[in-house]
């Protein structure tokens, strides 16, 4: 492709609304554009990257024996009513009506659709197992679309569904998909971890997430450097002995703490470490008000908390200031577990139980209680683990210390069991002619999100560094001065030779200043580079890769060989 003809609308400055590096670079490199919040368009270079990622995903899924289909994004409400998810998805679902008033959604996922499809098409155990997938746009009306392609409202996804005769078959299919994912993410060159996931509203019991490790990611994961333990922060068990204290339990005592509210302020006021304080947090669900006690230097994990309460995480809300005042007579910062109304359900994380003589709010403005203890005469429920794991906690698998990092979820796999086949009454006939529900799984890969995750992992301050396998073009020939005939001739010669050998190659034949050409060459991140400059008359060029940027002067023929060799 001649860059003089290429539609590549690059931008010099960072776009103002871009919050992550991948979004900045993709927009600046003229690869994507935002239409409205969370909705993106792909320019020629960006579209080529997208197609390359799609191709790798497709090749590996096909190689594993999965079959590609394509369903509609438009799904009728009835399907979702059967699983109960029309309501469960809530405002995250894009809903619309046809001219006759029939309701539809733009598919955020396709479990109901595929289950219903198979129910009508497949009826014998002889046709099982079956794994089918599609690569298609999905729609989710995110409350706050962000991070460019990482959390958009329209995104390209690969979703696969397996249909098996029994649990054993489902687990086998799960492992097949897992292996295929490992091949895909290895091929893409990702630094990633496979973690136990939280099944959220998918409804299964076992799930795993494939997380690309990057500092800009929104998923928090805990992992061990010593063994293969890894889990999302939503489920990572917090194991610690930091709060195991022994010694005499002292008499509880009220102390004046004028205007001392936060754990930080308490820490300074008492000159005691933060872990000597206990936070009492007030939440409400539709049914009740809950006070939950955790160590002062820890954070409550809402997913674990909601599981303990057996409610959906979205249905838990913090109390507002006026509600706190009505309930306790004090304000945030002075709330404690003693003297709460009987209607309040009191729960403590198990670590609080092992603490000795800690400090809590007195439910009175400007007062705290010291020497508090959870003793036998103090009624409260104990939850084993409601805390976020943090660096230095103990690995549940090997006992070493864990680490925490952020990442981007690029794939997930779920064992669904018979949840959807039961809800939609999808059955097959077994050997004895008896109707049985399918055992299912669903498995996603965020195809467009992968682009952003790759840029997060592969860039420097000059721009993107595409891995060869997804690069929009593999090589670029830069003619330093397009007005110089010798440079132009040699550039064309190299370009034509590479093109004839089947290499996806760009030639920068634009009448731009050399500085512009060089900086854009770095920005768009083409992996293999040949610069034709002042030694064109001797057939000497500069060869480098985008990754290490080390320039070598070699002959044009050698440079061509280098490119071909790199692509072998
Ligand atoms: Zn470990």
Annotated CATH architecture of the largest domain:
2-Layer Sandwich
Question: What would the principal axes of the Cα set say about the shape?
Answer: globular
CATH class of the largest domain: Alpha Beta
- CATH topology name of the largest domain, in short, is BirA Bifunctional Protein, domain 2
Largest sheet: 9 strands, mixed
Number of domains: 3
Separation, N- and C-terminal Cα atoms: 21 Å
- Helix segment count? 15
Pick out the low-confidence regions.
none
Topology at a glance:
Layout: H1 21-28, E1 32-36, E2 39-42, H2 44-63, E3 67-68, E4 74-76, H3 77-83, H4 85-89, E5 94-97, E6 103-106, H5 111-121, E7 130-139, E8 154-164, H6 167-187, E9 192-196, E10 207-213, E11 219-224, E12 230-232, E13 253-256, H7 263-270, E14 278-284, E15 289-295, H8 302-309, E16 317-318, H9 321-328, E17 344-349, H10 350-354, E18 358-361, E19 367-372, E20 381-383, E21 402-417, H11 419-423, E22 427-429, E23 435-437, E24 439-446, H12 447-457, E25 459-460, E26 463-464, E27 475-479, H13 485-500, E28 505-508, H14 514-524, E29 528-532, E30 540-545, E31 552-555, H15 556-567
Parallel strand pairs: 3-7, 15-17, 17-20, 27-28, 27-29
Antiparallel strand pairs: 1-2, 4-6, 5-6, 7-8, 8-24, 9-10, 10-21, 11-12, 11-21, 13-19, 14-15, 14-16, 18-19, 21-24, 22-23, 25-26, 29-30, 30-31
Helix pairs in contact: 1-12, 2-6, 2-12, 13-15
Bound molecules: zinc ion.
């Amino acid at each position: 492709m001649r860059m003089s003809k290429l539609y590549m609308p690059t931008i010099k400055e960072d776009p103002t609304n871009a919050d992550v590096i991948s979004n900045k670079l993709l927009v600046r490199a003229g690869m994507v554009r935002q239409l409205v919040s969370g909705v993106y368009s792909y320019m020629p270079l960006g579209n080529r990257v997208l197609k390359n990622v799609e191709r790798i995903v497709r090749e590996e899924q096909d190689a594993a024996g999965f079959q590609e289909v394509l369903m509609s994004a438009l799904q009728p409400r009835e399907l979702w009513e059967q699983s109960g998810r029309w309501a469960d998805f809530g405002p995250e679902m894009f809903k619309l009506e046809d001219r006759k008033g029939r309701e539809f959604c733009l598919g955020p996922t396709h479990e109901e659709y595929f289950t219903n499809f198979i129910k009508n098409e497949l009826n014998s155990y002889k046709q099982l197992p079956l794994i089918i997938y599609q690569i298609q746009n999905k729609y989710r009306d995110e409350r706050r679309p962000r991070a460019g392609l990482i959390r958009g409202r329209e995104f390209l996804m690969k979703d696969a569904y397996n249909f098996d005769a029994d649990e054993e078959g489902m687990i086998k299919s799960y492992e097949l998909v897992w292996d295929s994912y490992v091949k895909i993410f290895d091929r893409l060159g990702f630094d990633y971890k496979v973690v136990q996931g939280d099944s959220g509203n998918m409804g299964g019991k076992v799930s795993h997430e494939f997380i690309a490790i990057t500092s800009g990611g929104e998923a928090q994961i805990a992992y061990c450097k010593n063994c293969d333990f890894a889990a999302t922060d939503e489920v990572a068990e917090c194991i610690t002995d930091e709060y195991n204290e022994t010694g005499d339990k002292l008499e509880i005592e009220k102390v004046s703490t004028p205007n001392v509210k936060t754990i930080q302020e308490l820490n300074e006021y008492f000159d005691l470490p933060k872990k000597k304080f206990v936070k009492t947090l007030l939440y409400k669900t539709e049914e009740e008000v809950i006070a939950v006690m955790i160590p002062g230097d820890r954070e409550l994990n809402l997913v674990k908390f909601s599981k303990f309460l057996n409610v959906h995480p979205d249905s838990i809300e913090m109390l507002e200031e006026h509600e706190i005042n009505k309930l306790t007579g004090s304000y945030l910062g002075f709330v404690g577990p003693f003297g709460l109304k009987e209607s309040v359900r009191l729960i403590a994380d198990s670590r609080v139980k092992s603490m000795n003589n800690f400090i809590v709010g007195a439910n009175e403005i400007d007062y705290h209680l010291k020497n508090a203890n959870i003793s036998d005469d103090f009624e409260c429920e104990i939850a084993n683990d409601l805390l976020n794991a943090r660096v230095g906690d103990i690995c549940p698998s090997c006992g070493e210390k864990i680490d925490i990092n952020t990442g981007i979820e690029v794939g997930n796999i779920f064992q669904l069991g018979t949840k959807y086949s039961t809800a939609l009454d999808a059955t097959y006939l077994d050997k004895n002619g008896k109707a049985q529900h399918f055992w299912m799984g669903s498995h996603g890969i965020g195809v467009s999100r992968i682009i952003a995750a790759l840029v997060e992992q592969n860039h420097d301050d000059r721009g993107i560094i595409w891995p060869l396998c997804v690069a929009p073009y593999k090589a670029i020939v830069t003619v330093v001065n397009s007005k110089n005939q010798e440079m132009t001739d040699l550039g064309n010669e190299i370009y034509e030779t590479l093109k004839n050998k089947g290499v996806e190659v760009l030639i920068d034949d634009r009448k731009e200043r050399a500085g512009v050409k060089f900086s854009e060459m770095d920005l768009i991140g083409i992996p293999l580079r040949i610069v034709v400059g002042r030694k064109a008359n001797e057939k000497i060029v500069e060869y480098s890769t985008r990754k290490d940027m080390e320039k070598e002067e070699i002959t044009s023929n050698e440079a061509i060989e280098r490119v071909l060799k790199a692509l072998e």
